[in-house]
Hints:
Order of helices and strands: EEEHEEEHEEEEEEE
Shape: globular
Number of strands: 13
Strand order of the largest sheet: 9-10-11-12-7-6-13
Oligomer: single chain
Structural class: mainly beta
Number of helices: 2
Amino acid sequence: HHGDADAPPKAQQVADGTxxxxxxxxxxxxxxxxxxxxxxxHRKSMDSKLTGGCQCGAIxxxxxxxxxxxxxxxxxxxxRATGAHATAWFTVPLAELEFWPLRPTPFASSPDVTxxxxxxxxxxxxYWNASEPDKVDVTxxxxxxxAAVPPGKHIWMDExxxxxxxxxxLPRFPQSSGSGRI
Length: 182
């Protein structure tokens, strides 16, 4: 067991819109002040947003609800980027994704694709494709409440590893499902 990966980062509110968040799960980690302007004033609108972050807590994010059904991607690029046989993604408007206190590290995984991750712990966070520059995919597994965005399909099954044959009743597509990237 590698620690409690499901535990949220330790945080405490110390003033209007200011939070102290532990930089990572190590007991000696410093707390980083995070200022979210008007956080208390806009609490109702924030409640409809999704929140998440990396495993060590150095990166937190807030985003809108998904534009469409989330998907399990079985392509070889996602498999190599995440180290998992499939990765669950959901899509949001790029303008609706906010990171704090740090931004993830970008990586150009192909000419038109940029992925991002936490440079401290390696958590994969986003996938951006130049073909849809106003949208970004976010990993379902990095959400604080991943059950809030259940994937509803499997894509890129043509590239799935041998023996990867989901039997969960969800639709399976040889490549993209035709509704955007996912």
